[in-house]
Design brief:
Helix content: 25-40%
Oligomer: single chain
Distance between the termini: 59 Å
Strand content: 15-25%
Structural class: alpha/beta
Radius of gyration: 22 Å
Shape: globular
Largest sheet: 13 strands, mixed
Length: 506
Amino acid sequence: MLLILFDKGEYLQSRYMRTTESICPICQKRIMADIKEVENEIIMEKQCDEHGFFSEILSIDAEYYKRLERLDHFVENTVAKRKIKDMGCPYDCGLCPDHLTPSIFVNIDITNRCNMNCPICFASAGSTKRLYEPSFEDLVKMLQMMTSIKPNPPFAVQFSGGEPTVRDDLPQLIKAAKDMGIPQIQVATNGKRFAKDKDYLKRVIDAGINTYYLQFDGLCPSSYEKFRGYDTFPEKRIVIENLRNFGETSVVLVPTVSKTVNDDELGDIIYFARDNFDVIRGINFQPLSFSGRASKEEVKRYRITITDLVTRIEDQTNGEIGKEDFYPIPFVVPVSRFIESLRGVKMPHFTTHPQCGVATYVFVQDGKLIPITRFVDVEGFFEYLNEREEKIRCGGKITKGIEISRTLKNLGSFIEKEKMPRDLNLLDIARGIFSSSEKEYLAKLHRKSIFIGTMHFMDPFNFDLSRVKRCAIHYALPDGSFIPFCTYNSIHREGIEKQLTTSINE
């Protein structure tokens, strides 16, 4: 029996879920795939005529997988598209005409050089023997192309690599992005140079960096030895202390997570963030992606899904943070739709696929972790915003004014003030987001909380074209194209690097 998908993402209960398109992990040929419920798990099954049958776990909990689908929100976006080839998705990335979600978060690889030699890396000059390093001028052009996207340019750029801090001109790049008005400027780093070179770190700070995406795989030496080749945890401590001494307060810990390696450290990572709350503002768990060469056996051994991850977080925090506290990324679309109708301006919408990632806000009080769901009726609030947005959008000037006033007045009904952290005025923040500048008040929210999320990036084994088409995290390239994260690392990276790199031996 075929599972029917309604407009609001509500599924009829069924054992068979849906058919999608995927790729063969060996030859990368586009093939059909079935996503099925089997013994309360969700699996992907696909068959390549040449390389045989593949079965991949997507979720250990079928009901939780369906919950994420039910909480999905999708609206039409204006997407800047260009047709490069005519081979179809996922080969015509650029973005191709099939893409549904605009660039919201842009990665720019500024080098593939690195000061480490991580065994799990998929972007390394040392392993490819080829150097990718755009000139400063080319990188500025990429930033300019990013800011010229209409109607809404991406709100964030992340300088990545390789290791971006091996470039001495990173501060100048950050300043160039700042001067262009990009709201969020981030650097994805292993922190090695920031630990050793305070003068360089100060130049990065003075240039206007907003957030540090710090590679952080746990607290145990064995985790780092497996992922990075040696124990780098002492360096992470030094980086955090250096940032603290400079007054920096926006670090996001980025743990690569794998079964049998560090999946028993998720709770400890969260508690480390709690204990360093003055500096750390978020954790972005990233399940290990098998974009390089990996056997079926290795994938099965190390694969961890979103459901695995949130279940372990619940267990390892003794229920302080539960898996039901997490929501899929597109769940926040009602907020951007409401602001769009309220102000009469086009807003970007986070219409990523519901299986791409989940997140929550957690507040710290007296050493305890308090998820936002413990004092806010989150689902009721978003349902209410959906209803009010339709009234505002469809009504006349008088109706609009009445609905806006009514909405702002009723926000407090979704908050249990007696359970809210003492130093938090969430109602004031919510009204500020809707009535004035959402950026200012969202910043207040982030300063009061730890954002905990995960992005489950795909690889050729679990590749799903329905997810690709809704990707909002894109790589910017010198030719002006923007390529979805998962297609870039699963399909396009090797070919692009051959075109744009030079041999290290030359």
